[in-house]
Structures are given as structure tokens and as C-alpha cells.
Design brief:
Elements lengths: L2 H4 L2 H7 L30 E9 L2 E8 L7 E5 L14 E5 L8 H5 L2 H4 L6 E5 L20 H16 L9 E6 L1 H12 L6 E5 L7 H17 L14 H7 L12 E7 L6 H17 L5 E5 L7 H14 L4
Parallel strand pairs: 4-5, 4-6, 6-7, 7-8, 8-9
Antiparallel strand pairs: 1-2, 2-3, 3-5
Helix pairs in contact: 2-7
Protein name: Acyl-CoA:diacylglycerol acyltransferase
EC number: 2.3.1.122, 2.3.1.20
Catalytic activity: 2 alpha,alpha'-trehalose 6-mycolate = alpha,alpha'-trehalose 6,6'-bismycolate + alpha,alpha-trehalose; an acyl-CoA + a 1,2-diacyl-sn-glycerol = a triacyl-sn-glycerol + CoA
Length: 322
């Protein structure tokens, strides 16, 4: 039995992203309904089924044919967003890890505090408990096409309904764990969408160690997301999809972008393979002469507040200014 086969289901789900965010938005915090232009109607295949405002935080829930349930999205606006009607802002898409949801970064990581006074819109969408920011090869739980939802529907909807820079130099993507992988994947596959990419303890190599990360993705998605279906196919993988999604096989797609990588130094079921994959990725970037910023720090699999703050500041420095 291989190392990947020997990992039990609990470990695989842990590696997909850590403990779930369990706190919920309180109705008592509702300050009023959000009303960006056109938000109440249909657009890009999305229909709003719920929405509210919590200070700077705008909450939405959507109906979409790409997802069998109604995913949530938080949109965090700058402090001065409503004081003008002409200023446009850069956007950071911030992707959660496995067994988490769209509330992760404001409930656990103080993204509201970290962006106070900064002219940046932060979009935090659902990505499924083990969706891996993919359209799965098989699903027995209805559609779970997270990639199509994010790239074909949500991004155009955000640009149509908020004052964004709807262009390459106006967008960044970052994420934690499974979301860190999603950020790296989306940046490579959709080259013209994001000028900055960041991965906080996110896998960067799918095939190393006997395809360990592909096995994690398949096992966690089968158990927590797809009712026995898989992201990449089992027992045989869809090799074309693996290659298309694998950051270490898409090195040239990261040229001329800001790249920010963080991982921990602890030996841990989550961080040990993540660190090995990030080191492989960094080595290939260096060989190709592609600049990148990286940090290896004490601890294991969690978002480091100082690194998230550094990331936010780096995103603002790289993108078009508000």
C-alpha cells in the first residue's frame, strides 16, 4: 500500500483545509440590504436569494446552475466606497480552505481589521467543503462546478455590480490551503485575469509523491462534496485535467506576476507535503528566472496574521491604485 493510500479519510479531510468555520452571520447584525447596481436582478446566470450588509461587509447568496445548493459570497468594501460615486478599486479574491466556507477570513482571520483604511475590495466566495476550485470529473450530488461559478459567473458579476478595475492589473487572487491551490490554479489557467497570486499553505504540486495531492483531492471530494464522485477521476485520473491544474507544470504562466508563498516548518500531515510541493514550485520558478516572494515560518497549517497583512499590502502595491 502506498503512503497516499494509507492515509485515512480523517487525515485527507484535514489536509484539505483544517477545521471548519462554524460561526454564522447574525441577523441582529444586519444594517440593511446591499444594493449595487443591478444586483436585485438576474445576471451572468446568477440570481440573488439572500443579501445583507454588516458594516463594510456585504453578504450575498446566489442560485446558480453550476452549484447544486446556494453558495454564499462576502464582498468587503473599502471604508470610503460610499463616500464617492466615481472611484474604482482593485479587487482581491480570497479563497478558503477545505471544510471551511466564505466566512473563514472575517470570522477567523480579521480580514476586516487587516484592510481597514485600505482602498481594496475583497471578495470571499464559497468554494465547497472539498470542491478544490474545480469542475469535478464525476459528481453524484448534483452540479459542483466551482471553477465555472467563480470564473464565468462571479467575477463578471462583481465587475458589473461594483466599481472595480475589470482588468488584469486590477485583480489579485489569494487563498489558504485548498484555496491556496485554487489561487495558483486559477492564475495559471486564466492568465489574463490576475496580476498577483498568493498561496498560504497551499499545495503547488499535484503529481509528486505518487500523486499524493490528487489522492487527497479525490478522497476528500468523494467524502465531503460529491457523494462518491471525484475531482480528478478514480481509479484512473483524467490526466489532461491534472496537467492543466498543476502549478509546477504551468511555470511560464506565472511570469510577470507578483507571487507570494507561505508555508510552515512543522512536520504535519497537512504542512509536510505542502512544504515539499512549494519548494519544488519555487525551484522551478527560480530556474525560469521568475521573481517570487516566499516565507517558511514556525508552525503548521494555519493562516498567519502577519503574513496575510503583508500579502494584502503587497497586493495593493502591485495592483492599479484606487
Amino acid at each position: 500500500m502506498t503512503q497516499s493510500e494509507a492515509m485515512n479519510r480523517r487525515s485527507m479531510l484535514k489536509l484539505a483545509g483544517g477545521a471548519a468555520a462554524v460561526a454564522s452571520l447574525s441577523a441582529a447584525g444586519v444594517a440593511g440590504l446591499a444594493s449595487p447596481a443591478g444586483a436585485a436582478g438576474n445576471g451572468f446566470g446568477l440570481t440573488i436569494t439572500d443579501q445583507a450588509v454588516f458594516g463594510r461587509l456585504n453578504y450575498f447568496r446566489f442560485s446558480t446552475s453550476n452549484i447544486a445548493w446556494q453558495p454564499g459570497v462576502n464582498v468587503l468594501l473599502p471604508d470610503d466606497y460610499h463616500s464617492t460615486n466615481w472611484r474604482r478599486y482593485p479587487v482581491l479574491y480570497l479563497l478558503h480552505g477545505g471544510l471551511q466556507d466564505f466566512r473563514k477570513f472575517h470570522m477567523e482571520d480579521d480580514i476586516i481589521g487587516l484592510t481597514a483604511g485600505r482602498r481594496l475590495i475583497v471578495v470571499m466566495p464559497d468554494g465547497g467543503p472539498a470542491g478544490w476550485y474545480c469542475n469535478p470529473v464525476t459528481s453524484y450530488a448534483g452540479p459542483h462546478n466551482w471553477e465555472s461559478f467563480h470564473m464565468n459567473q462571479l467575477i463578471p458579476w462583481i465587475d458589473a455590480n461594483f466599481r472595480t478595475y475589470a482588468e488584469y492589473d486590477g485583480r489579485a487572487v489569494s487563498g489558504f490551503s485548498m484555496g491556496g491551490f485554487g489561487a495558483l490554479k486559477y492564475t495559471a489557467k486564466y492568465y489574463g485575469h490576475f496580476a498577483s497570486v498568493s498561496s498560504h499553505s497551499g499545495p503547488a504540486s499535484l503529481r509528486r509523491d505518487g500523486g499524493l495531492v490528487v489522492h487527497w483531492a479525490n478522497t476528500s471530494s468523494a467524502f465531503a462534496e460529491l457523494n462518491g464522485g471525484t475531482v480528478y477521476g478514480a481509479p484512473l485520473w483524467n490526466e489532461g485535467r491534472v496537467s492543466a491544474d498543476n502549478p509546477v507544470q504551468r511555470i511560464e504562466s506565472y511570469r510577470n506576476k507578483r507571487i507570494f508563498l507561505v508555508c510552515g516548518l512543522d512536520e504535519d500531515v497537512n504542512e509536510t507535503p505542502v512544504r515539499a510541493g512549494q519548494r519544488e514550485f519555487r525551484g522551478l520558478l527560480a530556474q525560469a528566472g521568475i521573481p517570487h516572494e516566499w516565507h517558511e515560518l514556525p508552525g503548521a497549517h494555519f493562516v498567519r496574521r502577519d503574513m496575510l497583512q503583508r500579502d494584502v499590502d503587497g497586493v495593493i502595491a502591485r495592483l492599479k491604485k484606487a
